[in-house]
Amino acid sequence: MSRIKVDFDLCESNALCEAMAPEVFELDDDDYLQVKAEETTPENEGDVKRAVAACPRAAISLED
């Protein structure tokens, strides 16, 4: 498992991460990113890694 980190100063809330890993990322009613899980699981790790790679601002990272 890896810890999911988001740099909210970089985040543009474009929802690409939510589209790829909706069980982990969600935009709230004010279009601010909410992280619903602090760590990856075996079930969502692939989706989260794709979301990290797709983030146009490199605002999401994983720490072992």
Automatic annotation (TrEMBL):
UniProt keyword Iron present: yes
UniProt keywords, alphabetically: 3Fe-4S, Electron transport, Iron, Iron-sulfur, Metal-binding, Transport
Names of the cofactor(s): [3Fe-4S] cluster
Gene3D superfamilies, A to Z: 3.30.70.20
InterPro entries, A to Z: Fe-S_cluster_ET
SUPFAM superfamilies: 4Fe-4S ferredoxins
Keyword Iron-sulfur (UniProt): yes
Protein name from the UniProt record: Ferredoxin
Species the sequence originates in: Nocardioides deserti
